From TrEMBL:
<keyword id="KW-0249">Electron transport</keyword>
<dbReference type="InterPro" id="IPR036073">
    <property type="entry name" value="Desulfoferrodoxin_Fe-bd_dom_sf"/>
</dbReference>
<dbReference type="GO" id="GO:0050605">
    <property type="term" value="F:superoxide reductase activity"/>
</dbReference>
<feature type="domain" description="Desulfoferrodoxin ferrous iron-binding">
    <location>
        <begin position="10"/>
        <end position="114"/>
    </location>
</feature>
<keyword id="KW-0479">Metal-binding</keyword>
<dbReference type="InterPro" id="IPR051233">
    <property type="entry name" value="Desulfoferrodoxin_SOR"/>
</dbReference>
<comment type="similarity">
    <text>Belongs to the desulfoferrodoxin family.</text>
</comment>
<dbReference type="Pfam" id="PF01880">
    <property type="entry name" value="Desulfoferrodox"/>
</dbReference>
<dbReference type="InterPro" id="IPR002742">
    <property type="entry name" value="Desulfoferrodoxin_Fe-bd_dom"/>
</dbReference>
<protein>
    <submittedName>
        <fullName>Desulfoferrodoxin ferrous iron-binding domain protein</fullName>
        <ecNumber>1.15.1.2</ecNumber>
    </submittedName>
</protein>
<keyword id="KW-0560">Oxidoreductase</keyword>
<keyword id="KW-0408">Iron</keyword>
<dbReference type="GO" id="GO:0005506">
    <property type="term" value="F:iron ion binding"/>
</dbReference>
<keyword id="KW-0813">Transport</keyword>
Length: 120
């Protein structure tokens, strides 16, 4: 089995593991990307069950491959009542149309992905 065959997807509004993605133009050539797990349905955030990381990729129109623009690890899962929130924001210079991808990892339920087309 290939790793790509283990990646799950779904409607992020009905599934708490799929990273929600919001992309908007933030300046003349920049985009603001927000990736969040648990936007509509909260994901547990305990030592036993949590989101370990989110990665964000951008594939500009015409590019052969997506480019990783951010990798975020969440380390606080209830120690001393401190909890990481699996939500990240990244600003990227991207002057053209692009596809934005987010990949998240739940320590119990594995890999999840989402993508959105950004028209510029």
């Amino acid at each position: 089995m290939k790793l790509t065959e283990t990646i799950q997807s779904g409607d992020w509004k009905n599934e708490k593991h799929v990273p929600a993605l919001h992309v908007e133009r933030c300046c003349e050539e920049g985009i603001k990307i927000v990736a969040e797990v648990g936007e509509d349905i909260a994901h547990p955030n305990t030592l036993e069950h949590h989101i370990s990381w989110i990665k964000v990729f951008v594939k500009p129109e015409g590019a052969k491959f997506p480019i990783e623009v951010g990798s975020y690890e969440f380390k606080a899962h209830g120690e001393e009542e401190l909890f990481s929130v699996p939500k990240v924001t990244v600003n990227v210079k991207c002057p053209k149309k692009a596809t934005v991808y987010a990949l998240s990892y739940c320590n119990i339920h594995g890999l999840w992905e989402n993508s959105v087309e950004f028209e510029g």
